[in-house]
Design goal:
single chain; alpha+beta; Muramoyl-pentapeptide Carboxypeptidase, domain 2; 2 domains; two-stranded antiparallel ribbon
Amino acid sequence: MKIIKKQVVAIIIIGLVLGVVNVNAMKVPWKYTLLISHLQSDLNRLINRDNLLEEDYVPGDLINTTVRRASTSPIQIRAVVDEALVRMFNDAEAEGIILYAKSGYRSYGTQKTMYKNRLEMNNGKDDGIVAYPGSSEHQSGLAMDVVNKELIGGQRMTAAFAETKEGMWLAEHCTDYGFIIRYPKDKQDITGIFFEPWHIRFVGNSVAQYISIKGYTHEEFTEEWQENLKTFLDNGGTIEDVLAHEHEMNKPQITESEEVNGETEISIVIRN
């Protein structure tokens, strides 16, 4: 047996030297479901107490949202998020669901003041109601608090919103527009934040759908894909291999063909 193993090793070494054995063919290919450009996009950045935004971080594409607001005050949000919100609000209204945007972008300085005030009200104790400066997704410009008519005033938002028709519609459909319920029920031990059925975070369509199907938090999703990438790289894969895989995934895919009136019609799908 030892002689056979030595012979196999010798054959591989000779093959490598002579260029007969393809090193790339020996690698385990990168096969994660989602594209690396989506995974590493700033739209998918994990933001929490362990992954803080920089004090001077301000998104470069902030605009005043064009959707229905809970007050007359302007609400800023990133442009790509506003586009998705417009589609979602319009589709909801077509089904008799009236949504209101209540809180979007919030600067580090504003968050710091809110956090300080909360501590003073609570005898210096952090009760988790107001996010620690740098850990608020509102600073990213990717999060929006969405409410119904009953919550457009100064009422405190509570988990009861999840039981309203607006809250249920939001939970069921937000992923269709690239959003996730960022702080889901019974996941506080992972997110560190109480259930917030009104707080949606934009991550893009493919990531949102994946997180929804898996039942993940953003923390769990990030841990999964980063661990997959680490394992791939530890086993000899390279970033170039991952990018090559994405290039192949982005090529038009011929999915089916059929003959119509004597001519062949081909269906082509382009991934995005």
